[in-house]
Fold:
Amino acid sequence: MIRRIITLLTLLVVISSCKAQGNNNIKQNKTLERTTEKFDSWTYYTQRQGNEYVFEDHLRGKVRQFGGDNGSDFVEYARKQNELFGTYKEFYNKTKTLKKIGRYYYNKFSIGIWKLYNEDGYLIETINKDIPYKNYPWEKVERFITEELKLNLFDKEVEVNRYIDEEVNLPIWYITWRTDSTEVFSIKINALTGKVISKEINEVRE
Structure:
């Protein structure tokens, strides 16, 4: 009799534990970030010319969409004319749900927080693209370009990029610009220290 009571008590503890764990899982699932954004494939396929659909949106600016053929994901770039940064999105081909979203600088480099979602819309990964450059972030680069170099970032002859030099595992800011038709200037900045690594002037060969 005592053994039966002990067995029943053990079962009750196990069941209660399972229920509590199940409730915790439900609570965790409810707190997961989820997106309901979907790609408008009908408008895309009926309006696109050639392999892409380009249009103006009053909130997002110039929008360029492409992809979707042969099972490929849909891709969207959007940027306002008077802004340096735009928004990049990818959508799953099958479900049309949002797959990836982040910000970019003139198609040159990714910046800020990027998010990746599964096909059910739940957030599965968050990547901070700025971490390698946190010692010398964009704000300092922008100030250097506009105040010290006296350049206009909206000038098409001014380009900014950033990358990791894999040989020495060093994050680099790379700035190039032209003041006339014969010379191209370039500067490399160590993103760990903020110090200029090199300055070059190259002649343009037509």
